[in-house]
Write a structure and sequence with these properties.
Strand order of the largest sheet: 15-14-13-8-7-6-3-23
Shape: globular
CATH architecture: 4-Layer Sandwich
Order of helices and strands: HEEEEEEEEEHHEEEEEEHEEHHEEEEEHE
Structural class: alpha+beta
Largest sheet: 8 strands, antiparallel
Number of helices: 7
Number of strands: 23
Radius of gyration: 23 Å
CATH class: Alpha Beta
Number of domains: 1
């Protein structure tokens, strides 16, 4: 028993050490007008070259199998907008015209996909197929919960991932609908484990239930500053504001990011409208932005500084997908209905990484003050 456990730990450690890092962090907010808002960062060990893809209803797709055979065949019922990767018609993060959204998050060393058999081939999908299948087929979390009982996610390589031939993308999935209801779906033991996710946060490995258990180690954290406390004859006062969050983990590991995501999203001041909540989500996600050089990934092609390639926020009430990129921090928005109409029945795309962000020179906007500085004449 001990030897088998040690072998498993060694294998998992090897997988973690040799897989490209995908240090994504997801959060959720809900505004006072009832809008569900879901945001996330996207990090990877090399550029994913994402674009926004637009997939109208009525498009036919089939799941990809490791041997190149045909998997699950379906036709999209709903229009879909979101980010892809490596030029594929795939959704890494996005939403549909019913207000259902999904995010794929890397799950290295823990994804346990089904083996392809004659019995399951006709209902099988690759990990990279899963997001588009969900958004193209369903309107609510409850519908997805029921549907995943009858599908198999198999370890089909993602072309361009690690090499031209590709490798299977270890992933788990976070899904939320316009009511704010959320679930995590994880490939475990050849099946799909569904877990309710009431806090609306997501990172990477280990499993979702492990992260929720780990939160119990931080029950002392609060958004309220700590008051004075006596230590014997001495009264101790906090040295500054923020003492309620003393002990909050600050590194970039998935467990630490999960704790921070839970604390920051739950402590967020209520936002009156969806538009306010969108900007609040971007501000929270600033806390997870990786400065270039802080995390160095040596799994693919030598040591590569990992960066936050893009950050997205989904407005599930108004059907808008917002994003900003590493090179352009200005926020851009894609209206789902407008984009689908512009696609005119065909699959389309919008470039995400264009020119670097421009800098505005406002020097000549200087105006004379109508009153002197405080304390002056």
């Amino acid at each position: 028993m001990i030897r088998r456990a040690a072998t498993y730990i060694l294998a998992a450690s090897f997988a973690l050490a040799t897989s490209p890092v995908f240090a994504c962090t997801g959060i959720s907010l809900k505004s006072q007008d009832g809008a569900a808002i879901r945001g996330r960062t996207l990090e990877f060990g090399f550029p994913l070259k994402s674009s926004v893809i637009v997939v109208p209803a009525g498009q036919e797709f089939r799941g990809q199998l490791p041997d190149g055979g045909k998997g699950l065949t379906y036709k999209t019922r709903y229009g879909v907008v979101g980010a892809n990767a490596l030029g594929a018609v795939a959704i890494i993060d996005g939403l549909n015209d019913q207000g259902l959204s999904i995010g794929l998050f890397y799950f290295p060393g823990y994804a346990q996909y089904a083996e392809v058999t004659k019995e399951n081939a006709s209902r099988a999908l690759a990990p990279q197929d899963f997001g588009l299948w969900v958004l193209g087929s369903f309107a609510t979390v409850d519908e997805v919960k029921e549907a995943v009982k009858d599908v198999a996610v198999v370890g089909t390589p993602f072309p361009g991932l690690g090499s031209a031939k590709g490798m299977p993308a270890d992933a788990h999935f976070f899904i939320q609908d316009k009511t704010g209801k959320s679930i995590a779906i994880e490939p475990r033991d050849g099946g799909l484990k569904v877990t309710d996710a009431p806090l609306g946060v997501m990172t990477n490995a280990p499993t979702y239930d492990w992260h929720m258990t780990n939160l119990k180690n931080y029950i002392n954290l609060t958004d309220k500053d700590a008051g004075p406390t006596k230590l014997g004859a001495v009264t101790l006062n906090a040295t500054g504001s923020g003492s309620g969050m003393l002990g909050l983990p600050g590194d970039f590991t998935p467990p630490s990011r999960f704790v921070r995501a839970a604390m920051f999203s739950q402590a967020a001041t209520p936002n009156e409208s969806a538009a306010d909540a969108v900007f609040s989500a971007f501000h929270i996600l600033n806390q997870f932005d990786i400065p270039k050089g802080s995390v160095v990934n040596d799994s693919v092609g030598g040591a590569i500084p990992e960066i936050t390639e893009w950050t997205s926020v989904n407005d599930l009430q108004n059907l808008r997908w917002y994003f900003r990129t590493y090179r352009d921090q200005s926020i851009r928005m894609v209206d789902v209905k407008e984009a689908i109409e512009a696609a005119n029945g065909k699959i389309g795309f919008i470039e995400m990484e264009t020119a670097p962000q421009s800098v505005s020179n406002v020097s000549k906007d200087t105006k004379a003050m109508t009153a002197g500085p405080a304390g002056g004449d």
